[in-house]
Amino acid sequence: MLEQYPKDVKLVFKHFPLGNHKFAGPAALSSLAANDQGKFWEFHDLVFANYNKLSSEKIRELAEAAGLDMTRYDRDLKDKVREYTALVQRDFREGQRNGVRGTPSIFVNGRLLKQRSLPGFKAMIEQTISRKK
Q: Whole-model pTM?
């Protein structure tokens, strides 16, 4: 969709670490450290591919696999933990206010995408674009 509608579509990722997943919170914080190194999506993809294997050790392994500078990663997680935690909590509260119950949840212009397929995505985007015109 980003390629098809480069001037009309912007992707925004929000954190919503589920309480029943012990390592969702640490993974979210680690993704912010990855983001500070320009490697958010590389780390994100590895985390989601390994969501059922996450542990403190696995998150660190994934950070290395994503190509992060591990000295900087460790320093940022220590020095920026309050900043990162505040961002994750803000995203989580926003998700709660908007009715997010699980992940992934997809919104198009503030509206929850119910038909979670490529045609459903395209239809909702085109409907949103046509309303703006």
A: 0.88
